[in-house]
Design a protein that fits this description.
outer membrane lipoprotein receptor (LolB), chain A, TATA-Binding Protein, 2 domains, twelve-stranded mixed β-sheet, six-stranded antiparallel β-sheet, globular, disordered N terminus
């Protein structure tokens, strides 16, 4: 079976002017992962006999193996496919690059823009890591390449197509205080400037798995469902399924390296059926120490370099659901918007209720706050609904759905449209 064949794991697996760049952030698939997949239950199960033939292991033991993994050096190639059932985001984000229709300038190398590309379509990445201070992630695009590099407190991003670079210097003390050994490459870049690399789009199987396996509780079934070969490595298949109804998540399968506990492949299937929403896995992987040159970067002569402080002046860094609705900034990130947020329910069917400032609904084209193309994009995602709460619009993807009522309430989670309407009615 091919190393990155999805069939291996399909047995199981979440008012200011609004431009197209902000529309691109509306549907990052893990924006509400902390709400929609808050708890994971540890249900022991023994691995079935499979190919390869590996010693039996329980789900509890396999999760502990992931947590105990001390592997910090690797390099390889990752293929990631995301299908949220929405139009491609690349063009939306790209229109705000230099020369784009927005006319707002900015750098095409800015990670805040480029990493949103991973929320749609299929991409090939090259990754390398040598401990918590040296990481590199490159997105390959035909003859072009976009690279994000962290070496100590220096972070560089380079877009070979436009010959533009982005540079940030980290606040090392702040970074060290909140360091997570499984953090994705460049995740904390630019904290000193207040313009960090986006955290909402994990790009490796390990980072995706940690979004799911970060808590324990009674709302989830976790089992081991046989074995697999991924990138030439023997692996166990850990299957995570919601016990609750109403979730858009059907199951998550994580292929875990049998030797070192590193997640090699991540597949999320929707409860509605069909192809995977997210399918990310190594096609090649090497756990030896990468060459030091992987983490060094000097801008080629003539490259236009944007410093993080200059980028900050262009736009504020959005976090969580910051680009979804006015006032939603900080959901899941402890920001100011979190004080106006409460959670209805728990586990996979949890729904965040957000009160927007001023009690206003979504800006509209008629108000002059939304460009026509952005309005068309939003309309393509939305369904008009009504109930005891009044009326509103449900913006839908195959994973995360959000109901924005006309009186300025937002209900959002990895749940169905009916679950959102029910929550709004019960809250009325």
């Amino acid at each position: 079976m091919a190393p990155n064949d999805s069939a291996e794991t399909n047995g199981g697996t979440r008012g200011t002017a609004v431009g197209r760049r902000k529309a691109a952030r509306y549907i990052v698939p893990v924006a509400v992962a902390g709400v929609a997949a808050a708890t994971i239950g540890l249900v022991p199960a023994l691995a079935n006999t499979g190919d390869p033939d590996l010693p039996k292991i329980s789900a509890q033991e396999l999760i502990e193996k992931i947590a105990a993994s001390e592997t910090q050096q690797l390099s390889g190639t990752v293929k990631i496919s995301t299908d949220l059932g929405i139009p491609s985001l690349g063009g939306l984000a790209g229109s705000f690059a230099p020369g784009g229709e927005s006319g707002k300038g900015g750098s095409s190398a800015d990670p805040q823009e480029r990493m949103t590309e991973l929320a749609s379509g299929t991409h090939t990445l090259r990754v390398a890591a040598d401990g918590p201070d040296k990481q590199r992630l490159s997105i390959l695009d035909n003859a072009a390449e976009y690279s994000l590099i962290r070496n100590g407190d220096q972070v560089w991003a380079y877009d070979s197509k436009s010959d533009e670079a982005y540079h940030a210097t980290e606040d090392r003390a702040g970074r060290d205080a909140g360091r997570d050994a499984g953090r994705d490459a460049g995740r904390d870049a630019g904290k000193k400037s207040g313009h960090p690399v986006p955290e909402g789009v994990p790009a490796t199987p390990k980072a995706l798995a940690e979004q799911v396996l970060k808590a324990a509780g009674p709302t989830t079934s976790v089992t081991v469902d046989g074995t697999a070969q991924v990138a030439g490595r023997d692996a166990y298949k850990l299957v995570v399924k919601p016990k609750q109804s109403g979730s858009t998540i059907g199951s998550v399968t994580v292929a875990v390296d049998a030797e070192n506990g590193v997640p090699l492949k991540f597949t999320l299937l929707p409860s509605s059926g069909g192809k995977a929403v997210v399918d990310a896995g190594f096609t090649e992987v090497d756990f030896s120490k990468p060459d030091a040159s992987s983490f060094t970067f000097t801008p080629p002569k003539g490259t236009e370099v944007t410093e993080a402080d200059d980028a900050k002046a262009q736009h504020k860094a959005d976090k969580g659901l910051g680009g979804l609705v006015p006032g939603a900034e900080g959901l899941g990130a402890g920001g100011q918007g979190a004080k106006d947020t409460k959670v209805i329910g728990k586990g996979w069917s949890a729904i965040a209720e957000i009160t927007t400032p001023g009690g206003t609904g979504l800006p509209s084209k008629a108000s002059g706050e939304v460009p026509a193309e952005a309005q068309q994009f939003l309309d393509s995602l939305g369904d008009k609904v009504s109930g005891k709460f009044g009326s509103g619009t449900v913006f839908k993807t195959r994973l995360v759905n959000a109901l924005l009522t006309d009186d300025g309430k937002v209900y959002v989670g990895a749940v169905t449209k009916d679950a959102l309407v029910e929550a709004a009615n019960n809250a009325s």
